[in-house]
Amino acid sequence: MEAAVRSGALQAGDALPPIRAAAVQLGVSPATVAAAYQALRQRGIAESAGRQGTRIRPRPAVAPARGQFRIQVPDGVLDLATGGPDPRLLPDIGPALARAAADSWPTGYAAEAYAPLRAAAQASFARDGVDGGELAIVGGALDGVERLLGAHVLPGDRVAVEDPGWANLLDLVAALGLRAVPVAVDEAGPDPARLEEALKGGARAFVVTSRAHNPTGASVTAERAEELKSVLVRHADVLVIEDDHAAELSVEGLHPLAGATRSWGFVRSVSKPYGPDLRLAVVAGDATSIGRLTGRQRLGTGWVSLILQRVVADLWGDPVVGEAVLRARGEYERRRSALVHALRERGLSVTGRTGLNVWVSVPDETTAVARLREAGFAVAPGALYRIATPPAVRITISGLDLDVVPALADAAAEAITYTGAAAGV
């Protein structure tokens, strides 16, 4: 079955045969099929679908044929599904690359952090009220999250995650053999009562997006942060991981949870403000967590390229680049605000305080996505991001020019109205 996923014979969402039917077809015992299905779930390839049995995950943890890696967007359709930054708004990294190329670099094996990058990261964390005394450099936000989880939890452990939440994180949790416990999210961040339930239920870790939440655009407010910390201090052994992937692009201030528990990690990546191919993030945390993270890193990748570290440090210190990031932040804010306002004017339920995405409630995701694509707009189905929350679609605003907003809002209203009528809502 894993081979069938790789070849494309089994697609995301496909139901696997009932256990007894598969046993007869393959000439093996039902116990053998049940064990195989369990292994597929533990590897993050399949998931339980309740009474519908077992099905292939929306994004299984096995590489399919190359053509299936990305959602195919037909010619003439505006891609608002990817979640990435607008290439037109990324700063020019050419000068930083040229300066890095002009420097001499160690040619041996040296697992270390580039001192200027470390100093810049610590200063950035200090301005935001995060203790950056213990620091690690990793290969992007998800790499940092995975390494922090690996330092504290084991397969089978429960992890509290935002619902809806970052699809990559949900897939990672499944691939690591962890059990995701959903915590509902509104525009102010995770629900403290639901977090309390998850922690009382045995969750050993909690992963939260500080701001520019993907997919809803939520941002943890000062009041919500205090409520969440009041829950966390009663569960001091829980690992808290904060993901600040948008960083400089967010118009919302940061209200960190760092230090509310003994084990914590704060991850800040550079992909959204400076470019997705800059696979680097800085991680602050308690001494034990950072020590375990860097210790295991030395046994694997060793370190993040010092050339890449040099480039990122250069970008952080370049005032021209800083101005470009600020312009991008302002433009993203205008696009997001315009779309949220237009959708609400048309009576739609939408969230999106900050960041690159907005979350629009729909009666049926499949029909809404199809109708919008017919109208010229590719959006992402909410099923990729949610566990127990109602249906929705995610619209990425990064590639949305302001003059297109009215047409998109009209198309969304028409698609959702049609979907509701078809569903009898």
Identify the notable features of this structure and list them briefly.
globular, eight-stranded mixed sheet, 16% strand, 425 residues, four-stranded antiparallel sheet, alpha/beta
* Uncertain segments: none
Oligomeric state of the chains? Answer: single chain
Q: How many strand segments?
A: 16
Which structural class should the secondary elements be placed in? alpha/beta
Distance between the termini: 38 Å
Output the strand order for the largest sheet. 4-11-10-9-8-5-6-7
Strand content: 15-25%
- Overall mean pLDDT stands at 91
Helix content: 40-55%
**Helical region count?**
15
Global geometry: globular
- Major sheet: 8 strands, mixed
Radius of gyration: 22 Å
Give the SSE map:
Blueprint: H1 2-7, H2 19-26, H3 30-42, E1 46-48, E2 54-56, E3 78-79, H4 94-102, H5 115-127, E4 135-138, H6 141-150, E5 158-163, H7 167-175, E6 179-186, E7 189-190, H8 192-200, E8 203-209, H9 222-232, E9 239-243, E10 263-269, H10 271-274, E11 281-285, H11 287-299, H12 306-317, H13 319-345, E12 350-351, E13 357-361, H14 365-374, E14 377-378, E15 380-381, E16 392-396, H15 405-422
Parallel strand pairs: 3-14, 5-6, 5-8, 8-9, 9-10
Antiparallel strand pairs: 1-2, 4-11, 6-7, 10-11, 12-13, 13-16, 15-16
Q: Could you characterize the architecture of this molecule?
A:
It is globular, with a radius of gyration of 22 Å. It is 40% helix and 16% strand. The longest helix is centred in the last third of the chain and has 27 residues, at 319-345. Helix 14 (365-374) crosses helix 15 (405-422). It starts with a helix and ends with a helix. It has helices at 2-7, 19-26, 30-42, 94-102, 115-127, 141-150, 167-175, 192-200, 222-232, 271-274, 287-299, 306-317, 319-345, 365-374, 405-422; strands at residues 46-48, 54-56, 78-79, 135-138, 158-163, 179-186, 189-190, 203-209, 239-243, 263-269, 281-285, 350-351, 357-361, 377-378, 380-381, 392-396. Strand 6 (179-186) and strand 7 form a beta hairpin.
